[in-house]
Amino acid sequence: MASHTPGAPVFAPPANLPEWASRSVDLASTRLGAQALYASDDFFGEVVRMLNPEPAQFVPGKFDVNGKWMDGWESRRKRVAGHDWALVKLGVKGVIRGFDVDTSHFTGNYPPAVSIEATVSDSDDVDALKAATWTEILPPSALGPNSHHLLESTSDAVWTHLRVNMYPDGGIARLRVYGRPVGGLENALAGALVDLLAMENGGRAVSWNDASFGSAAAALLLPGRGVNMGDGWETRRRREPGNDWCVLELGAPGIIEKIEVDTAFFKGNFPDRCSIQAARVSAGTDRSITTQSLFWDTLLPEQKLTADAIHTFSEQITALGPITHVRFNIFPDGGVSRLRLWGKVVRD
């Protein structure tokens, strides 16, 4: 008997994100260290698949020992009272704006509803988390088949762990938790050199003029080097005068001593030059801060860049004192994988 060869995979389309999500960070990204810690049942699909940063896929004809292979968290059909649930540790603690509960490729096996609770804990021990006090931040919300569900959080507090409840059972392909990282530098040693812009230290992307390729400017702040040319901030080919830019907020006020601009994997499309402006900002909306950034002082004058390389600058940095925000300019366009601002935290 001839063996059956699974068909070509079908990838889920991306979500059409509202502004509150597109301007946020996925706090449940495994790139940030997020983990699926526990599931009441994941017979058909391991709960760790739910946090996979890649789009969900459906592979026709692919089966495993328990049945049809599905790309996501899927429990068995519940034959007793109750519902299935999972514990998720966020990659960084943060304020949660909302969620994408993605049921892509789950058609007759999606859960009819989902709710999400949150807590703050220093422990990832499952028994300790089961006994923790949980706060509902997403009330029971209806789900449909094969769809992205963009659902807003009811809380503006800071959280570290989530309990995802699906009623009563079924499958969730992906969970994205959109929010803003908070803290990370509270315990930084006095005088220690730290990456003040790193996402895990509370850095965030405020605004950017273009992100036609690759990811939004927030990718500049991710841990590690980029894994490919899609893992970075890349703009379209500029056909008019000017340059591309993004505005970024540090995790804490600090004095910059070293800057790294990494063009990993960008070979025929790296920017010709870059510069950085900076300021200490005490108040303002993202929109007003972006407008002000046009007139900030120069932290790093224009510097030449090369392909697929880490560029380190220290002597070229202008002494501006403590700063909270930077405007990263690339000339005229192109792609950058990571930006690191190494400095010392300034305590108020």
Based on the model shown, name its key terms.
single chain; 348 residues; mainly beta; Jelly Rolls; 2 domains; eight-stranded antiparallel beta sheet
SSE blueprint:
Elements: E1 10-11, H1 19-22, E2 25-26, E3 35-39, E4 57-58, E5 63-64, E6 67-68, E7 73-74, E8 84-102, E9 113-119, H2 126-130, E10 135-142, E11 148-152, E12 158-167, E13 171-172, E14 174-181, E15 194-195, E16 204-208, E17 213-214, E18 233-234, E19 244-262, E20 273-279, H3 286-292, E21 297-304, E22 310-313, E23 323-331, E24 335-336, E25 338-345
Antiparallel strand pairs: 1-4, 2-14, 3-8, 5-6, 7-13, 8-11, 8-12, 8-14, 9-10, 9-12, 15-25, 16-19, 17-18, 18-24, 19-22, 19-23, 19-25, 20-21, 20-23
Write the CATH homologous superfamily of the largest domain. Answer: Galactose-binding domain-like
Task: Compute the average pLDDT.
Answer: 95
CATH topology of the largest domain: Jelly Rolls
Into which percent range does the helicity of residues fall?
Answer: under 10%
Going by helix content, strand content and strand pairing, the class is: mainly beta
Shape: globular
* End-to-end CA span: 74 Å
- What proportion of the residues form beta strands (DSSP E)? 35-45%
Q: Estimate nothing, just give the exact number of structural domains.
A: 2
CATH architecture of the largest domain: Sandwich
**Number of helices in the DSSP assignment:** 3
Topology, number of strands: 25
Query: Mind telling me the CATH class of the largest domain?
Result: Mainly Beta
Biggest sheet features: 8 strands, antiparallel
List low-pLDDT spans: none
